[in-house]
Amino acid sequence: MRVLVLHSHPVESSYGNALYRQTLESLKTAGHEVDDCNLYAENFDPVLSRRDRMVYHDYPQNTEQVKDYVDRLKRAEGLVIVTPVWNFGFPAILKGYFDRVWLPGVSFELVNGKVESRLRHIRKLGAVLTYGATPFRAFVAGNPPKKIVKRVLRAQINPVRPVTFLAHYDMNNCTDETLAAFLGKVKATMERF
Question: Count of domains in the chain?
């Protein structure tokens, strides 16, 4: 299966990058063809410009500025997001990716006033996230990133398929043991993806 891996952490020496490298390695070990999409390394521009907004509903004109990313998304059969959670949301570069690439005609289409997915070719969805907050604080805040993955993205891809969701909470108080254990969990889970 061709798996698109989206990564959005700017620091190469970070634990988030270790998770990203482990995800890539484990998916390859499982026999998947991996499309490595490191948004920072690729200098992805997350800004939805005035021009982008003016042609937002005009497919395929709306894809001209992000054609390579659209093509990669259309070829994907699996999607895994590896990202930190900042202020209970995705980093701006990842949010911008969804705003600029998951466009009308690409990820959805309006048919008789109803949204129809154009991402049914993606058979598996996964996420590997890190939070500074504890699970309780994330719960109290409504845990928007978890809801985006398990509800919004899942609904756009296939609402009846399970989602692989891995999160390391309380990064502010992590230990070498908790980091190693989570890295091992990511390794084992992605080898079964």
Answer: 1
